[in-house]
Fold:
Amino acid sequence: MTTQHKRLTAAVCMAMVLAVAAGAMSGEEVMRAVEARDGGRAVQALIELRLTDSRGSTSERIIEGFGVETEAGLNRMVVVFHRPASVQDTRFLVVEHADRADDQWIYLPALRRVRRIAAGESRESFMGTDFTYDDLRSRSVDDDRHTLVREEACGEHHCFVVESVPRDPASSQYRRRVQWVPRDIWIPTRVELYDSRDRLLKVNRVERLEQVQDYWTPMESVMENVQTNHSTRLTVQRIQYNGNLPDALFTTRFLETGRTR
Structure:
């Protein structure tokens, strides 16, 4: 989707929002409003990850994330691990494409080389967290069928509850997703993820939202695997929108060298 197309979509979605009082939005309209939400053209964040296993033992990781939207309206993301020493300098890159699945690469210092994440690895854990490589790929509204299940209060917000089912079951590790979307924010604050046997597998909860530089931002969230009783808590320590991020940051060369020059 081009930037111009995204702006047009955003305008259409705003018209939808203003029309809510006259009639309920459809599930697809809700998810298009989520997709069209302005998240800035660039973002840089320092994030603490706290992993908790079924026995209550915890481990911490510090990562730095960089994201940018290209002129063509496509997203690129880089994650750099800073701590602990066992994962330090691990670097991960995602590049979105308009006509095919995202490319993903990872640099592991112990191997001293960059390797592409194969499609067969999409369901594997990303660096021991409760996120898989598939979770870190982009997904278009058109990839799923969306049904508005109900509307309900969620905290101080009014939420649309939307069920999303893949049009092509092979395109996702999840049989379906159920998302709670606040009407005035358009960021899912709760997502239930169901496995291939339609059993609840994971729940992603946003526990703290703040406005940073006028952008609504999940400052603290948890991804919990309810089948293994393992969870990953993300706490944003520092975040900045719309800074100048060099194009060279989003390359496999940066993964390998850690340098943009």
